[in-house]
Write a structure and sequence with these properties.
Number of strands of chain A: 14
Strand order of the largest sheet of chain B: 1-2
Order of helices and strands of chain A: HEHEEHEHEHEHEHEHEHEHEHHHEEE
CATH architecture of the largest domain in chain A: 3-Layer(aba) Sandwich
CATH class of the largest domain in chain A: Alpha Beta
Oligomer: heterodimer
Radius of gyration of chain B: 20 Å
Helix content of chain A: 40-55%
Number of strands of chain B: 2
Structural class of chain A: alpha/beta
Largest sheet of chain B: 2 strands, antiparallel
Distance between the termini of chain B: 48 Å
CATH topology of the largest domain in chain A: Rossmann fold
Largest interface: A-B, 40 and 50 residues
Number of domains of chain B: 1
Largest sheet of chain A: 8 strands, mixed
Radius of gyration of chain A: 22 Å
Chain lengths: ~400, ~300
């Protein structure tokens, strides 16, 4: 009797997965994509989702001769929700790759679930210093950048423009501090004032006091990092305070294809002519990017954001891995070796991977302009940092 | 230069205080008179902002949109009161908190469906985007002055309403002793609906005034509602005068803290320590003030009489 029961249990355990998954995992490539699909951050996540769908359309939904099964998951802008979504992808859906992650804190909370299960983790945005340094992992890859790199490029841009004194503003949290540290690392002039404003659930969105201080400081420029909805809010108040002609604006991750249409709708000309740095831009001149940007605009009617560009690249990176092993998903070493080569046609142009699997790539300075149809976008001026590697690579043991 | 900067910062503080007052006036009314804890008050602030943003896009005029958005938000408030809030008056505070928290989630989701999660910017006419030199060396954005003017007008109107009309008398009586007002034959149901709608209109006004500075966005009310609760607790629950003074106090303390705390800290500690400590302390400043005031006057600065 006891044996009968245990036999029944075993056969149930064997049968169950077959009942719940209609297609057996062997003939498809499962990709989980974790991003923000609800809350105020949803516009970023939706932009990434569009780019992922466009990438799958471009590759005919096929990798290494197998169909792709994409599972989107929402992190609700919260680390704990992101980790739960990741756990579900890894344990229940048994995906082969987990990609996505806009937010550094969500990535840090979720990375262990993926890596401990022996799956590949590809960040399509977040680049906190630990994952590039001490916490680097052989199965972790980035299609974005390390947090410090973009502001370091900004510091260099300011030096080249001959800016001697700077006022700095950023939200008071991990990435805000990274951004300020990054610009301080390369900027050679004097930082005459600094405000770290309140961030989080009740983030400060009224910057009147800080802008009055910045104006009184007599700085030659103002550097800000305000991602998400704080960005347009800051720029509006910057313009309403009449600072455009007095205090030129330099930004990182604040002015992008998501905020520019809103700023244009709000008539905020103050942002035109402002300078930002980035590893990519919609006008970057290469065949892959032209195809991506043109088709994105055709399908969705707007310029893709850098979040979208990185999400697009993450799918192409995965394809390069699966193609290299002809769809044999058990060949982890083969897929890892293929990804390390960064041999796919990235929308940022050619780049290589460092020992920590973070891109070694160019960073550009960009100016906000109106395109030929009058839509506001960014225009790449020049390369500021050439083949730049993040400073944390040395801490990585790989 | 220093004096003019101080003056600008005082004006900034005043402007923040007035926005807080508009938001907390409705909160203190519902809490003081109806004994109802309304966490979803911030959602009405969000609705005001979104309605005004949509109407600005539709009509092309911010002024017209603002004039229409206030009564429309009051109408939304009335609807919410009749459908949801009315069923809850007899329950205890915990039920209020739970139900209105649910209301926040519902209203946020409705706003997300109607207006998309991206948020909407409001285009102002050029004159409101400009600056005005109030005194030599004191240049202030015109729109901030407008907020101060509109807010003071609303406060004056509210003062007249509460202190010099029959409705105001009932409101004050309700704040002092609700049961007695009912026993005297006043139609409490209609009074409550009216009070809730007034609160909603004021919250909507605050929301549409903030939207051109920041933007209309999902959950914008949830970020500021905590500060509004701090205001009504410091001011004394149910007291309009208390809410006004506490709101200005918090606006000034918060703004001046953000402006001068790092300079003050630099006098007594290293630059680096001051840079780390100042943002943390200035974010806490209003809560520290609340703790001190509650320790000395647990009933708040100006409690509604005989509560």
């Amino acid at each position: 009797m006891k044996k009968l029961l245990s036999n029944a249990l075993i056969s149930a355990a064997i049968l169950t997965p077959a009942i719940f998954s209609p297609v057996s995992a062997a003939d498809e490539v499962k990709i989980g994509f974790v991003t923000t699909l609800t809350t105020g951050g949803a516009s970023i996540g939706q932009d990434q989702e569009k780019a992922v769908n466009l990438a799958l359309k471009h590759i005919d939904n096929t990798m290494g001769g197998k169909q792709v099964n994409l599972i989107m998951a929402d992190d609700g802008f919260k680390p704990e929700v992101g980790k739960q979504a990741t756990d579900k992808l890894v344990k229940q859906d048994d995906v082969d790759f987990v990609a996505g992650y806009i937010w550094s804190h969500v990535l840090l909370a979720s990375r262990k679930s993926v890596l401990d299960a022996g799956k590949f983790l590809i960040t399509a945005n977040a680049g906190p210093s630990p994952v590039a340094g001490k916490l680097c992992h052989e199965n972790f890859f980035s299609t974005s950048w390390q947090n410090d790199q973009t502001p370091m490029a900004m510091g260099e841009t300011l030096n080249q423009k001959g800016v001697k004194s700077l006022y700095v503003m950023a939200p008071n949290y991990a990435a805000g501090k990274d951004m300020v540290a990054g610009v301080e690392r390369t900027f050679k002039g004097e930082i005459v004032g600094k405000d770290m404003t309140k961030w989080g659930k009740d983030a400060q969105l009224d910057f009147s006091a800080e802008l009055a201080k910045a104006k009184a400081s007599g700085a030659e420029g103002i550097f800000v990092f305000y991602p998400g909805k704080a960005g347009p809010a800051f720029i509006k108040q910057y313009q309403q305070a009449g600072l455009r002609d007095i205090l030129p604006l330099y930004t990182v991750f604040t002015v992008d294809s998501l905020s520019l249409p809103k700023l244009q709708a709000g008539g905020m000309e103050g942002v035109l002519g402002s300078v930002s740095t980035q590893h990519w831009g919609p006008d970057l001149d290469n065949a892959a990017n032209k195809k991506f940007v043109d088709d994105f605009r055709k399908d969705y009617g707007s310029y893709p954001s850098f979040y979208a560009a990185q999400a697009y690249d993450s799918i192409l990176l995965i394809k390069s891995a699966v193609d290299a092993v002809n769809g044999d998903l058990s060949d982890k070493d083969g897929m890892r070796a293929a990804m390390e080569k960064a041999s796919f046609a990235s929308v940022r142009g050619e780049f290589t991977y460092g020992n920590n699997h973070m891109p070694i790539q160019d960073f550009y300075s960009r100016t906000v302009v109106a395109d030929e149809d009058g839509n506001w976008t960014t225009h790449i001026d020049k390369v500021v940092l050439d083949d730049h590697q993040d400073v944390y690579a040395a801490d990585c043991k790989l | 230069m220093e004096a003019s900067l101080l003056l600008i910062q005082l004006l900034n503080g005043l402007q923040l205080g007035i926005l807080l007052f508009l938001l907390s006036a409705g909160l203190t009314l519902t809490f003081g008179i109806m004994d109802f804890v309304n966490l979803a008050h911030g959602s009405l602030y969000m609705l005001g902002a979104f309605i005004c943003a949509s109407l600005t896009q539709l009509t092309g005029s911010f002024a017209l949109a603002a004039l229409l958005a206030v009564p429309l938000t009051a109408l939304c408030g009335l609807l919410i009161e009749m459908v949801v809030i009315r069923q809850l008056y007899s329950r205890n505070h915990l039920d209020h908190v739970l139900a209105t928290f649910g209301l926040i989630l519902c209203l946020d989701t409705i706003a997300e469906i109607v207006w998309s999660p991206a948020g909407i910017a409001i285009a102002l006419p050029d004159i409101l985007n400009g600056q005005l030199e109030v005194l030599p060396g004191v240049v202030v954005p015109v729109f901030r002055l407008l907020i101060i003017a509109v807010g003071l007008l609303a406060a004056a109107g509210l003062y007249l309403l509460v202190n010099h009309t029959k409705l105001g008398m009932l409101i004050r009586a309700g704040a002092s002793n609700r049961t007695m007002v009912g026993a005297l034959g006043v139609d409490i149901k209609t009074l409550f609906s009216g009070v809730f709608a007034i609160g909603a209109a004021l919250a909507g006004l605050a929301g549409l005034l903030v939207a051109p500075i920041a933007e209309a966005s999902i959950g914008m009310g949830n970020e500021i509602i905590i500060t509004a609760f701090v205001v009504i607790i410091i001011g004394g629950i149910g007291s309009m005068k208390g809410a006004f003074i506490a709101a200005l106090l918090i606006g000034l303390i918060d703004t001046l803290g953000r402006s001068y705390l790092d300079d003050i800290f630099k006098l007594i500690m290293s630059n680096e320590a001051a840079e780390t400590a100042a943002p943390a302390i200035s974010a806490m400043l209003i809560y520290l003030m609340m703790a001190v005031i509650l320790a000395i006057r647990p009933q708040g600065l100006f409690p509604a009489s005989s509560r």
